[in-house]
Design a protein that fits this description.
Distance between the termini: 32 Å
Number of strands: 0
Number of helices: 5
Radius of gyration: 26 Å
Structural class: mainly alpha
Shape: rod-shaped
Helix content: over 70%
Oligomer: single chain
């Protein structure tokens, strides 16, 4: 009876719980890396450094323009690195999740296979 309950859970609600956990991990990764927000703000100044307006002579305005331009390139570079790391992480998470979904149905069979290998003399 216990084995029947385990098999019933494993291929029923256990399967669904595993899928929910995978979805939660993917959602957490998407929230952690905020890829869409990083893309929307790709050329925004890095940490809003030199983002404000400047009054004064042309030289001061030009320097502020260059500062903002450099800040935007630094921001784009940092965001690009975070986006790449996030995409690699999501790719690895997707592959691991797919592998886990493929292996999940066969895990209850492992003790039977191990016993068969033991009896068969395989080391």
């Amino acid at each position: 009876m216990l084995i029947l309950a385990l098999v019933s859970w494993w291929y029923g609600s256990g399967w669904l719980q595993m899928l929910v956990r995978i979805r939660e991990h993917i959602e957490r990764a998407l929230d952690t890396f905020s890829l869409l927000q990083l893309l929307r703000t790709f050329f925004a100044p890095f940490r809003q450094i030199s983002a404000g307006g400047v009054r004064g002579p042309l030289g001061v305005k030009f320097r502020a323009f260059v500062d903002r331009l450099i800040s935007r390139f630094v921001g784009a570079f940092v965001r690009l690195i975070v986006i790449c790391i996030g995409l690699v992480y999501l790719l690895l998470l997707g592959v691991a999740s797919l592998l886990w979904m493929v292996v999940w149905p066969f895990i209850p069979l492992l003790p039977i296979v191990a016993f068969g290998l033991l009896v068969g003399g395989v080391r």
